[in-house]
Specification:
Helices cover 73% and strands 0% of the residues. It contains 12 helices and no strands. The longest helix has 24 residues.
Length: 230
C-alpha cells in the first residue's frame, strides 16, 4: 500500500511526498535495496544528482536501471566520462542478459550515450545512438538509417523516453546541419519533430490518463517554436 502511494506521488511529481513515504518504509527493513533505489531515483527527478548518487551507491544489486540512474546522475553533474562508464556497464549487462532482444532499459542507455555525444558536439555518432534507442523503445521499428523515423506507434515500450529520444534526435540533426550546411539534414530535423508530434497525438488519442496528459503538457507544447523556426 505504501509503495503504491509513493509511486502515485512520484507520478504527480510530488517528490517531497514520495520521499516521506519511502523513508518511512526504511524502518521496516524490507526490500531496503529497492527503497534506496527508489529514493535515489526521486532525488534524480528532483535534479539533485549528488544526493541521488549517495543513495544509489547503497543499492547492493547490479542491474540496468541502477547503472542507467547512476549514469544519468553523473550526466547531470556534467561528468560525462563517468556517466559514460555507467552507461557502458548497463550496455554490457544488457548484452549478457538480453543478447539481441529489445528492451526499454537498453533504449534508455542508448539515448543517454547519444546525449553525451551531443554534448561533445558530435551529432553523427549521437544520431546513431538515438536510432538504436528508438529501435529498442519501439518493438516493430528496426531501420538503421538515421534518416528514417517511425510512422506508427502501436508497439511503443516507453512513450516518455521515446518522446525524449525523438526530440534529442531532431536537435542532433539541427546541429549536424550547422556543421554540414546540407539541407537534407535540416529536413531530417523537421521530419523528426513531425514524428515527435505524431507520437504525442497518438498518446493523446489512445492513452487518456493523467500520466499521458502530464507527459504531453511537459513535452509537446514546450518545443513547438523550434520546428516553426526550422
Amino acid at each position: 500500500y505504501k509503495t503504491n502511494l509513493a509511486s502515485a506521488y512520484r507520478k504527480l511529481k510530488n517528490y517531497a511526498g514520495a520521499l516521506i513515504v519511502y523513508k518511512e518504509m526504511l524502518a521496516y527493513h524490507v526490500e531496503t535495496d529497492k527503497l534506496m533505489h527508489n529514493i535515489g531515483s526521486v532525488y534524480l527527478a528532483m535534479r539533485q544528482p549528488a544526493v541521488a548518487i549517495d543513495y544509489l551507491n547503497k543499492v547492493n544489486y547490479e542491474d540496468q536501471k541502477k547503472y542507467n540512474d547512476l549514469g544519468r546522475a553523473y550526466y547531470l553533474l556534467k561528468d560525462y566520462a563517468k556517466a559514460g562508464i555507467y552507461f557502458q556497464k548497463a550496455s554490457a549487462l544488457n548484452t549478457k542478459l538480453n543478447v539481441a532482444h529489445k528492451n526499454s532499459d537498453h533504449g534508455i542507455t542508448l539515448k543517454y550515450l547519444g546525449d553525451i555525444n551531443l554534448q561533445k558536439k558530435q551529432p553523427l555518432p549521437a544520431l546513431q545512438f538515438y536510432q538504436q534507442a528508438i529501435s529498442n523503445l519501439q518493438f516493430d521499428f528496426s531501420p538503421k538509417n538515421i534518416y528514417t523515423n517511425p510512422s506508427e506507434f502501436n508497439s511503443v515500450f516507453n512513450t516518455a523516453e521515446l518522446l525524449e529520444t525523438l526530440l534529442a534526435k531532431a536537435e542532433a540533426f539541427s546541429l549536424l546541419y550547422d556543421q554540414t550546411g546540407k539541407t537534407k539534414d535540416l529536413d531530417a530535423s523537421l521530419n523528426t519533430y513531425l514524428a515527435f508530434y505524431k507520437l504525442a497525438d497518438h498518446i493523446e488519442r489512445f492513452y487518456d490518463t493523467d500520466d499521458a496528459r502530464l507527459l504531453i503538457s511537459d513535452k509537446k507544447y514546450a518545443s513547438h517554436q523550434v520546428p516553426i523556426d526550422i
